[in-house]
């Protein structure tokens, strides 16, 4: 992009707004589907974060234990770069070392306490690059601003170091962000060196002195509170003189990140709705049982059955006895299809039973006898 030309001397940690958004979208897109619910999206997002952290752990492991193979002619610089930088940054530094092998310094000029080096690439004599260094050769800067924008020395600086027979990369050209020890020190707002700077000490002294001045003003104006304030100040001095410093050198300032507080969602049920409803009988409207095992309903059924039994055994039901007698007298004359009357319905009287018996007998066809048949009477 054309805008990057104006930011070549600014270090942004290789972060660009659009590239970061596109990278995150490309990462999440592999795990999240378009029609996923919020529950599925949460699990997929956590899976993506776990894989991202796992890749970071693998990179840290490779940086700590892997040793790359030296392939350039500048072995000292390459070996030192492999110990300083991470594996990904080391590959970029190695590319710069390969380019530095084809650069030749054509001029060295002393400008006071500065040194100016001019160089050209082998077989490309048209373009010229300049590198400025101090007299001690600890601070080097190139006109391409590669270190200022990318955080690693460019090939032109490595060419000057080769020309001056330097055997190590200056500390001023080592960006701590790309080193293996970038995570070793915790980022904290307070200094844990044990010895504070003079500015911080003066600031604390001024703030406490302002409060002490106000206390002195109150004690001098109020005679009755003078002794109380004096005793309180003496007790505070004795208390804090013997108390150790809470922010000591051995105690790290850790930024603990815990789990977020769990908040109920809008669709969560209320606590009173979670109570189980008691069972209620539809017969007696009491709790603790149902109509199937209701004692009152059973008692009513037993009373009803007892009343029906007494009613059937009363002398008024004479038709049943007569009916059974008729059945016993002529069982062979009644058809098998004859239906016994239901006791729960209206019972026929004796005349109706005789009429039904005669009608059944009349419907039966008379037997047909042959000439030679012999009829034997059973009586």
Automatic annotation (TrEMBL):
One of its GO terms (molecular function) is zinc ion binding. It comes from Cuscuta europaea. Belongs to the FHY3/FAR1 family. InterPro entries: FHY3/FAR1, Znf_CCHC_sf, Znf_SWIM. It is found in: Nucleus. Residues 300-332 have a biased composition (Basic and acidic residues). Pfam families: SWIM. Its main location: nucleus. Residues 300-361 are annotated as: Disordered. GO terms for cellular component: nucleus. This is Protein FAR1-RELATED SEQUENCE. SUPFAM superfamilies: Retrovirus zinc finger-like domains. Keywords: Metal-binding, Nucleus, Zinc, Zinc-finger.
